[in-house]
Specification:
Radius of gyration: 22 Å
Largest sheet: 7 strands, antiparallel
CATH architecture of the largest domain: Clam
Shape: globular
Strand order of the largest sheet: 5-6-7-8-9-10-11
Oligomer: single chain
Number of domains: 2
CATH class of the largest domain: Mainly Beta
Helix content: 10-25%
Number of strands: 11
Length: about 300
């Protein structure tokens, strides 16, 4: 049974809302998947807003698109066999984790599929030797002998960028610019005047503005620690891990020599596993006294955008 493709449960293209007073007055995310979507037979009790991340995790793990399991334009239909198989596989995975790992997400779709629709039963001989695991395991890194503490690495980064952040987005009709100094900020857009960003908006934007994260890293994670060293291209970097509830929630890669932030690797939980997003920064230039990366690449298991 482990060789059966792990695929997607059925959802409707448009959420089917329950027409009750409580459904209309509930805050976002309060509805269950079974209440919000048609023909949900597995993952019924998860919040409705967690169903799509769960589906994304499956597409990443199997290297497929939605149409592999779903009928386009009628996602709730059960016409395709892979979709029916998916329900059995999710139940199997839940049972494995419940019976062997205290219901922790130890086994996921990716444990067997590794980017392929069908798991490979026979080990593959890798070119150039075994590949390292994608995720770091806390406490097992042996490259920390000469690595400075996380606080020192972050302090060097803040010093090198001037303690501020500037994001420039090039639009067809002009540049959109957002600047933060950790406590306040301002923004401008084409054909609009410069405006100060309210403090509440600055606070809520911190997790979303990638280059701002290291400046507030201790506020975002329960623990921050140096997790080792790693090469990004031809640059040696220190890896700083942000940890929540004993798991690495994000990793920050700082250039050993310059102190610049080269990469952020973030993990987002879903009911079936963690989705990863990687942001790479390059081509650092000085702009109005600030060091700004002029190249940003966002990569996910199934896409890459520069």
């Amino acid at each position: 049974m482990l060789g059966i493709a792990f695929t997607v449960v059925g959802i409707s293209e448009t959420p089917l809302r329950v027409q009750t007073a409580s459904a209309n007055t509930s805050p976002p995310g309060a509805m269950s998947a079974a209440e919000a979507y048609q023909n949900i037979q597995v993952l019924k009790e998860i919040p409705a807003d967690q169903l799509v991340p769960a589906m994304q995790f499956i597409t990443y793990s199997l290297g497929v698109e939605c149409s592999y399991c779903h009928v386009e334009g009628a996602l709730e239909k059960d016409d395709k066999k892979p979709k029916q198989t998916a329900r059995k596989m999710m139940q199997m995975m839940a049972a494995i984790n419940r019976d062997n790992f205290d219901s922790k997400q130890a086994v996921t779709c990716n444990s067997c599929h590794r980017g392929a629709p069908h798991p490979v039963a026979t080990p593959i001989i890798a070119e150039g030797g075994p590949r390292p695991a994608f995720e770091s395991v806390l406490g097992e890194d042996t490259s920390l002998t000469d690595a400075p503490p996380a606080e020192q690495i972050i302090a060097k980064y803040v010093e090198r960028i001037g303690g501020k952040q500037l994001t420039v987005i090039h639009l067809p009709n002009g540049d959109s610019i957002t600047a933060y100094d950790g406590a306040s900020g301002w923004t401008s857009a084409p054909n609009r005047p410069v405006r100060e960003i309210p403090s509440v908006e600055v606070a809520s934007a911190k997790p979303e503005v990638d280059l701002q994260l290291p400046l507030h890293i201790k506020q975002l994670f329960n623990e921050v620690k140096t997790a080792g060293t790693e090469k990004i291209g031809d640059r040696e970097s220190y890896v700083v891990a942000g940890i929540n509830s004993g798991e690495i929630a994000a990793k920050f890669y700082f250039d050993k020599e310059s102190g610049y932030l080269l990469r952020i690797l973030r993990y987002t939980k879903s009911p079936l596993g963690r989705n990863s997003t990687q942001i790479d920064y390059a081509d650092f230039r000085t702009l109005n006294g600030l060091k700004v990366p002029f190249q940003k690449t966002i990569a996910r298991p199934n896409s890459r955008l520069t």
